[in-house]
Specification:
Length: 162
Amino acid sequence: MISEKIVKALNDQIAAEMYSHYLYLAMAAYFHDENLPGFGSWMKIQAAEEMSHAMKIYDHIIERGGRVALQKIDAPPAKWDSPLAAFENAYKHECEISSKINNIVDLAIAEKDHATNVFLHWFVDEQVEEEANALEIVNHMKLLGESKGGLLMLDRNLAKRE
Ligand code: OFO
């Protein structure tokens, strides 16, 4: 049986993952508007991944006999100062998501909910990858500096994400 405390924390995390989905969709639209379709496509794929994260948690709650309670999702920003600023925002956001996941792991341990603890290990691993992916792109963009040619090359590379 899953505790009410864990159900509440997992429902909050569904909302956080859905907000991630929304945030990255907004970034995708921003990149398309900036004529960077490769960046836009990368972000659209990322947004789809976030929805799948939310659904994994949704399914876990139901499987454990808990009640899914969907929450209001805030509107994300529509614009960033630069493509670099958008990816810096994405990196910072992923660090915040990692800390939310870690807090639920702590709660699962405190509540002796081994099933949720083990379930969340996938998310702990995933967050290592999510942070690394965003940070790698931030660092590449910093190396490129003001180079428009470099930005277009990176755009072509990001378009290859499947
Ligand atoms: Fe769901 O990993 Fe990003 O936010």
